[in-house]
Specification:
Layout: E1 4-11, E2 14-20, E3 23-28, E4 33-37, E5 43-48, E6 53-58, E7 64-68, E8 73-77, E9 83-88, E10 97-102, E11 108-112, E12 126-131, E13 137-144, E14 147-153, E15 158-163, E16 168-174, E17 180-188, H1 198-204, E18 209-214, E19 220-224, E20 229-233, E21 239-244, E22 249-256, E23 262-268, H2 273-276, E24 282-288
Antiparallel strand pairs: 1-24, 2-3, 3-4, 4-5, 6-7, 7-8, 8-9, 10-11, 11-12, 12-13, 14-15, 15-16, 16-17, 18-19, 19-20, 20-21, 22-23, 23-24
């Protein structure tokens, strides 16, 4: 059994964890802030994002990029701490932006919900959009079943995206111009749900892949939003390791720590906004893997 410890608590709902500059950075949805947490549990507020932060990443020059979910913008933090618009994605989607991956060139890949998740609307596909250094944005991968976390494997040649309601991880070849080509299933956890009802679809999932991060030997750690666990998955779908989160659901994960072997888990009792926005029950867990 892997020992899991609590690093920090008192959050509303955490997403987008990234290990950066010796700390775990994450977005706390309903306190509308980006936080950085050291391994002793000390929390610093880095930025306040009124329209709800999500995915995080950094430009090659070290400036922070943060997804602003509700107004469909990508924000950039300047050296004085101010947030400015890096890109406007409102012409590409009508619904919340979600997680993000920023590659080594500073190009950002951002998923969106595709439908009004929190009101229980009928499910519709979302997309992954790509934002260039100049702030230009375009759709890179349409018809994604709730695109969520993303990770790079194969030395950065392959981008893998979690399709939460697709019951799978989907891979693309990453082009030098930001194109996503050769779309293929990287790991399937079972049949794709046929219902467009969120609750029925969730009940049909074997794994609900939410946030993900690259692991050792081209594996991927997956936050299983219905399994109260994080799983380490090899290409093809074999589960090679598992970390239990006890009574809490895991919605995102990141590898980091002093030796790079600490798996951080963003966990909470549920994901529904009406259950989480006025509570402070979300936590950061950690396990050595």
């Amino acid at each position: 059994m892997t020992t899991v410890r609590t690093v920090a608590d008192g959050f509303s709902f955490l997403e987008g964890p990234r290990w950066h500059d010796g700390r775990l950075w994450a977005s706390d949805f309903y306190t509308r802030r980006v936080v950085a947490i050291d391994e002793s549990g000390t929390v610093e507020t880095i930025a306040e994002v009124p329209q709800q932060p999500s995915g995080l990443g950094w430009l090659p020059d070290g400036r922070l990029l943060v997804v602003s979910m509700r107004d469909h913008r990508l924000l950039r933090q300047e050296s004085d701490g101010s947030l400015v618009e890096h890109a406007d994605l409102s012409g590409l989607t009508d619904f919340h932006l979600n997680d993000m991956l920023v590659d080594g060139t500073g190009r950002a890949y951002i998923g969106d919900f595709g439908f009004d998740l929190m009101s229980g609307a009928a499910m519709r596909p979302g997309r992954v959009s790509v934002v260039g250094l100049d702030g230009s944005a375009r759709v890179a991968a349409p018809d994604m079943e709730f695109p969520n976390g993303m990770a790079l494997v194969d030395g950065g040649a392959t981008l893998v995206a979690a399709e939460t309601f697709g019951n799978r991880l989907t891979a693309f070849t990453l082009g030098s111009d930001g194109e996503l080509t050769d779309r293929r299933v990287w790991a399937s956890f079972g049949p794709e749900p046929t219902s467009t009802d969120v609750h029925e679809a969730m009940a049909a999932l074997a794994v609900a892949p939410d946030g993900i991060c690259a692991g050792a030997d081209n594996t991927i750690w997956v936050a299983d939003a219905v399994g109260r666990r994080a799983i380490q998955v090899a290409e093809g779908g074999e589960i090679v390791a598992e970390v239990s989160s006890g009574d809490l659901h895991v919605f995102a994960c990141a590898l980091g720590g002093a030796n790079g072997n600490t798996l951080f888990l963003c966990a909470a009792p549920s994901f529904a906004e009406h259950e989480r926005k006025d509570t402070r029950e979300a936590v950061v867990l950690a396990a050595e893997v």
